[in-house]
Design brief:
By secondary structure, the chain is α/β, with parallel strands linked by helices. It has a single domain, classed as Rossmann fold. The protein is built from eleven helices and eleven strands. The strands form three sheets. A six-stranded parallel beta sheet has the order 3-2-5-6-9-10, with helices on both faces. The chain has a three-stranded antiparallel beta sheet with strand order 4-8-7. Helix 1 crosses helix 11. The radius of gyration is 17 Å and the shape is globular.
């Protein structure tokens, strides 16, 4: 019996303070190349995020989306999205590749706060509720350094709050230990320092580099789509 190559689809997981709409330019570029994708709406992020929704709730939503997808899947996590993806994807049979797009890639037992040496130490502290606005003094420069001013201003205007718990809760498992992964290191990122990206990228199966800011899905969607298409093509599954 002959075999046919099955093209993977993409599951896009946004980062802190963003909504799924941030992926719109990239989704258009992927569609132009014949790729299918869907985007997760993380419950810890929103104009009024649930105060009890943390990283585990985000991981549950990612897992729920994966259960609805047929065929091979490449999961693309941006920034904070790497934390719940690391938790969620363990054991999912259809995921053929993880892509950490200038994303956090934690070890077991690490939270986002732990990566920066600011982890909480007691269960009571982990139970703190509430949400926080963007933490950067200048989000335009930190997140969108390569965008023209008008586009950057629009992007900043779309940022929302994120629950405190999403940064406190620690992963209990690490999908990148069993699922092949690619780290896309963004060399002009002013939100996650390239030096920190290098540390996390050392955990990945493969590393790619983009000469871009923190948000290439907005500043370089065609270039990013081409890179992701190449990654997905290499992960084609024979059926």
């Amino acid at each position: 019996m002959s075999t046919a190559a099955v093209r993977p689809s993409f599951l896009l997981v946004h980062g802190s303070w963003h909504r799924p709409a941030c992926w719109t330019p990239l989704r258009g570029a992927l569609a132009a190349g014949g790729w299918q994708c869907r985007a997760v709406d993380l419950p810890s992020v929103g104009p009024q995020p649930s105060p009890t929704a943390g990283m585990y709730a985000d991981a549950d939503e990612i897992a729920a989306q994966l259960r609805q997808m047929e065929g091979p899947v490449v999961v693309v996590a941006h920034s904070y999205g790497g934390v719940p993806v690391t938790q969620a994807v363990v054991g999912h049979p259809h995921v053929v590749r993880l892509v950490y797009l200038t994303a956090y890639m934690p070890e077991e037992g690490e939270s986002l706060n732990d990566i920066y040496g600011a982890g909480v130490s007691t269960p009571e502290e982990e139970d703190l509720y509430g949400s926080a606005p963007v933490l950067f003094d200048d989000p335009r420069t930190a997140l969108y350094g390569d965008l023209p001013d008008d586009q950057a201003e629009h992007a900043v205007s779309q940022l929302v709050e994120q629950s405190v718990r999403s940064c406190q809760q620690r992963v209990t498992r690490a999908a990148w230990r069993t699922v092949p992964s690619t780290y896309v290191l963004c060399e002009r990122d002013q939100a996650i320092a390239p030096a920190l990206q290098e540390v996390m990228a050392a955990r990945a199966t493969h590393v790619e580099r983009l000469s871009s800011d923190h948000s290439p899905f907005l500043s370089a969607p065609a270039e990013l789509a081409a890179l992701l298409g190449g990654i997905a093509s290499a992960a084609v599954v024979e059926v």
